[in-house]
Amino acid sequence: MSAPDSLLAAFSGKRVLVIGDLMLDEFLWGKVSRISPEAPVPVVNVASESYYPGGAANVARNLREFTPHTMVMGRVGGDRYGCQLLELLAAGGIDTAGVQQDAAAATTVKTRIIARNQQVVRVDRETKTPLGAGQEAGAIAFLEAALPDVDAVIVADYGKGYLTQTFADRICELARRSGRILAVDPHPYTSIVWRGATAIKPNRLEAFLAAGLAPADPVTPVLADEALLEAARRLLERWSPRHLLITLGEHGLLLLAGDGEQRHIPTCAKTVYDVSGAGDTAIALFTLSLAAGLGAAEAADVANRASGIVVGKLGTAVVTAAELRDSLAAGR
Questions:
Q1: Catalytic site residues?
Q2: Are 98 and 74 in contact (CB under 8 A)?
Q3: Which domain holds residue 222?
Q4: Chain segment 61-113, per-residue pLDDT in tens
Q5: Distance between CA atoms of 113 and 117, rounded to whole angstroms?
Q6: What is the pTM of this model?
């Protein structure tokens, strides 16, 4: 692998477009002082609030730590949450030219209430509204115009209605025709098929569900986990990606290729406070590493190190360039 400073320098010149469901992550921070007299639930006294780009927007936020050439493409509502999300993205230096603001749609908001560094409850506000024909045509036109100027495309499907099979087919076709890296983080509860992508990154549960198999308990060593390997085999056959990267939580990553190669990368995490957004970090750094010229195994190692850092933080966090540099240097 390249020296950490050389790799980070290569990252900074890469141009990446993120496509998918955009969300706003809201955190309410407080403390529990008593149990409610109305029901056996804790009463949280809120001390502060914080807001972060979520969903596909969090993938872009992870990328922006390493390259200023980060674009995002998706849809937000015409509500105050949509405006707030656009403001956060712009303030973070992320190009939002590909974001459609739809007055008829509601922005997805995930509210997490945190007390004493523990998540008490999560409240989701969402309405799944598919893109209209004109909106989808506009999104495809934007993608066609943007592709010559990017090195890679990441699709983050959170199943909120932005992505359809026809849209997915066009994304795959245009990326393949232009020779661009295409990495996909699929959603298991949709029927969208992503054929011919450079890489597809489900987590363990998503891999089983997408493969049509009942989830099974993990087996160690990972390369002896026959149920997981069968799910992977089915996904390779169904999707035909060049690389299949399955995130396994505390067990690290499993990297598979269409030619039958299998590689397990053990986790680098020292502590785990919050797994929120770890998959976003993994696909962002894996794709960026491929764009910078690393092989799939090296790219998976970088993604694993980045994910191991971010799960040690509370909330929808990102890994910084300095943190990744130190981890890569320690592992050489």
A1: 280
A2: yes
A3: 4-22+54-108+126-330
A4: 999 999 999 999 999 999 999 999 999 999 999 999 999 999 999 999 999 99
A5: 10
A6: 0.94
